[in-house]
Amino acid sequence: MARVKAIGMFDSGFGGLSVLREVVKVLPQYDYMYLGDNARTPYGTRSSDLVYEFTKQAVDFLFSRRCDLVILACNTASADALRKIQQEYLPKKYPRKRVLGVIVPALEEAIEATKNNRVGVLATEGTVVSKTFPREMKLRAPKIRVFQQAAPLLVPLVEAGERKTPAAKPILENYIRPLLKKNIDTLILGCTHYGHLEKEIKRIVGKKIRLVSEGPVVARKLNLYLERHPEIESRLTRGKRRTFYTTDLSERFKRLGAVFFGTAIRPQKITFR
Fold first, then answer.
1. How many CB atoms lie within 10 A of CB 166?
2. Which position among 191, 201, 209, 265 bears the catalytic label?
3. Does residue 7 carry a pLDDT above 90?
4. Whose C-alpha in 20, 71, 205, 227 is 20 to 30 A from the C-alpha of 244?
């Protein structure tokens, strides 16, 4: 294992396993390491400073396990920590390593999809408060307006396995209606959990609105990124190994991990101080 150069993926909990599942479908040849900070989830209600510290710990851990590239599959971490890690932390401590997020790939997909320049974002409270989606969109496509909606009940809904219950529809409608009133034609599912609600959301928004789910988008964008950066791709090992870490090893993690990743996983517990 010491020789492995893996792609690392970090999330505050389970959601990033959905992204990893899609990435593995597109790029099965590489070795992957996943870290879920389940002991301190959710990040969506944490301060940005605390999210940065937690994310930095996760990046340090994955780099210490010989990951050369880490993806922040957590939208809150991507919103509150990614820029500072890329611009300040990596140049000083890890100049040859890279950390990527999930927000910019989703935005790039939405820019290509929208026809009327009105894009909705369904996200956690922390991501909405950070204003990362509208800020990053303004940098890339200033003509496109971004309308955000916090959806704090969706993560527990998915994790409780209740997305197909009668209670799910009114909760989703309550979050989605304000965005539909803005005449959006594209909706970004700005939390990795929300991809599990894609079918239910499609029934509400109809066929005319394009959904951007982060898992498939990140997989495609990562493939393109590695093609553009052979200096990173050439260092990655191709053993098809999948290693899983969590800060809270429980039967719940194993059960939900299998649901999110699509197959049984064997996680190992780590502790941050």
1. 7
2. 191
3. yes
4. 227
Model confidence at 1: pLDDT above 70: no
Helix and strand tally (H, E) in the chain?
14, 10
| Average pLDDT value for the chain | 93
**pLDDT at position 243, please?**
96
Rounded mean pLDDT, 182-194: 95
Residue 142: other Cβ atoms inside 10 A: 9
For residues 210 and 186, give the distance between their C-alpha atoms in angstroms, rounded to a whole number: 5
Report whether pLDDT(172) > 70. Answer: yes
189: β partners? 122, 213
Phi-psi map region of 119: left, alpha, beta (phi>0 left; psi -120 to 50 alpha): beta
| pLDDT tens, position by position, 69-91 | 999 999 999 999 999 999 999 99
Give me 17's structure tokens: 């396993």
19 CB-near residues (< 8 Å, 6+ apart): 9, 11, 71, 73, 102, 192, 214, 215, 218, 219
Supply the pLDDT for residue 20: 97
Active-site option among 19, 72, 74, 172: 74
Let me know if 74 is a catalytic residue: yes
Nearest to 240 by CA among 82, 28, 25: 28
Q: Report which DSSP code applies to 211.
A: E
Buried b (16+ CB within 10 A) or exposed e, 56-90: bbbbebbbebbbbbbbbbbbbbbbbbbeebeeebb
Q: How far is CA 238 from CA 16, 30, 228, 260, in A?
A: 21, 4, 18, 23
